[in-house]
């Protein structure tokens, strides 16, 4: 188990954030005019001058090194003793002047070593060599096998310094945006394996180098002491890029994939920290100086091949060799890099070997060479212009003169180093001069430019380290712990290797830790004490391990038991799963069936719906038919009623006719009987003569009366009644006056009542009359209803003086006609009574169902219920039919005849 960091982490700002804050602070202070915040420290460009030895001993020198900082330029004429020379001697001062005898080591120590120290401390630096062709720029920067230049020495001293603090390969990985990301140990291991596979497969990958190249080894070995100032708690990795700027195009010299690809021009971009970089450049992680030199040589080779293809010269291009140092703090155990990208610090040392700066007129170049020279001059002129503008801007800062825009982008080489001049870092320049007289003029130009450059101020880079609040010296403690473990292992404590690193224990042992070095006596004491503690720890660990083993055995047996149970459960589970599968299949099949049935149910439901709709339609039709049938039935019933009433009327009429005939025959018989009686009386009477005439007359009259009455009845009731009414009275009067005892009973006038006196009615009507149901009803205040008039008492027994015969008839149209025959009951002298009709009322009730054959009466405003009331007797004769008259007459006759019969008996 690895312990976690005990010290709480502080909020850490990345270098970029720190730089941004610093720039912001500076901007605000400048804009506010505040003088509280001190201005950023600036250093001038460090310009060194190196004078190479004269190419040949016979050459005339025009440069004299006066002291370590000053040279004197002497015109060649003057050097030859020409007293009239126009040009004067010029004296130039530099930071340091290396005379011809100066060694590569001296140059490195003075110029490049501080830059490597900057690199280790996380600062950026730029070093470029400037001078005419053949002045020793490449010699100074690269050197040869025997005289190693600045670049290999930088790499050598760098690797010597960081050798114990290097990460494994691919822990830091370029993100192709000029930044880096941190891979975990596992990912880094995977990358390493892939690289190895590629190497064995012989495919694309890093260089395939020989393990020991004596030439390289000699070039790499400088035997310089490591530099101071390294952070021992950090882990480091070195990356290199090598590009060439030729004809204002940038080429990647380390790009894999053949010369054609290497000759593809790259573009320059700005990263998140405002640093310029070549986009897509090959960035190689190197772990030793030999590896770096080997890559450099590969680059050189590609450069030469490219120049052959392009028919160019090596001195016509600018070479940029970048050394990038990536560092990040280790974790609290000092073991691995903290997996936080923000903690990474990247510093860069750019070593630039510029092309020769001679004029084309002197070199007498033409064509291609002239164009090259033009480009070179242009880029160098741009460099010169940029530095001049920078100097002018810095000199006029705070004044009223507006600052000039520095034309970095006019040339690729200035564009690439824009951030050094504009931002921060350290810039150094070595002006290489060939002291021969022929180069006097160019040297003068170069030296003038170099002098001017010294006046350019560059902001000093401040070291930017991510402070995570971790204990310093943790890596040293880790190392001490591992030394102690190794020692114990050598002494036979094999368990010591199993101990986890405990840096806290190391801290507790030494009072001055971590000030002392690993090879100091204090460190040895610490290791001794550490070993003792670790021995105790190992013993305790052993005990604990034994206990753990016992527990493990127990646990194992328990585990085996559980495993067995698990196995049986698994078997059971498998069988259950099989059952479950079957059940699931069955359920799926059932579900499918259900789906099928559901769909068929849907179909049936649809059909049912259709059928129900059809049933509804048919029911509606049936109801219509039923209604039609009912109507027809009603009509039929109506017709039936109509015919029934007709039939009843007909039957009634026949019956009445029959009765009339019967009555007629009886009358005839009676008349004959009376005649016979009279005749017998006559025959038997003594006073035949006296009695003969009146009797015969009386009989004749009676006979005539009967006959005329019957005739009248045959002709019509109304006529008979009218006749009766008109004629009967005088005839009765005659009887009452002359023959009251034996003739027809005369009306007793004394019993006649006035109309104003109380009337008592005999209402003679059928047994079940048709109800009138009308509003207007005959008003009879005091009445007695009878249905038959069979006896005299029916007429006289109720003290009635009014008689009303109610007759109801239905005609063929279904109308009901009700007739009220009204008369006075007049007592006769013989004790009988006679009815004298004096009024007829006719009530006609129209059928509500009109007959299809019947024409509506014109006057039907009152619903045809009551058409006429109180018609007179004279009008009645015109309105009533023969049949009804017969009926009334026959019924009236009953009363009359009854009286007659009685009278006869009396
Ligand atoms: N300080 C020196 N000591 C000894 N030899 C030197 C020195 N400087 C240069 N030379 C020699 O001079 C020759 C030309 O030097 P070099 O190629 O470095 O010049 P250069 O300025 O790089 O030329 P170019 O601009 O063409 O690249 C080389 O053979 C080199 O060995």
TrEMBL record:
Boundaries of every Kinesin motor domain copy: 44-456
Binding site for ATP: 131-138
Biased composition (Polar residues): 24-35, 716-730
Keyword Transport attributed: no
Subcellular location: Cytoplasm, Cytoskeleton
Coiled-coil ranges (or none): 545-642
Main location class: cytoplasm
Region called Disordered, residue ranges: 1-46, 702-758
GO molecular function, one term: ATP hydrolysis activity
GO CC entries: kinesin complex; microtubule; nucleus
Single GO BP term: microtubule-based movement
Source taxon at top rank: Eukaryota
Residues annotated as signal peptide: none
Record key words, sorted: ATP-binding, Coiled coil, Cytoplasm, Cytoskeleton, Microtubule, Motor protein, Nucleotide-binding
Entry-linked InterPro entries: Kif23_Arf-bd (IPR032384), Kif23_Arf-bd_sf (IPR038105), Kinesin-like_fam (IPR027640), Kinesin_motor_CS (IPR019821), Kinesin_motor_dom (IPR001752), Kinesin_motor_dom_sf (IPR036961), P-loop_NTPase (IPR027417)
Protein family according to the UniProt entry: Belongs to the TRAFAC class myosin-kinesin ATPase superfamily. Kinesin family.
Protein name (Swiss-Prot/TrEMBL): Kinesin-like protein
Species of the source: Musca domestica
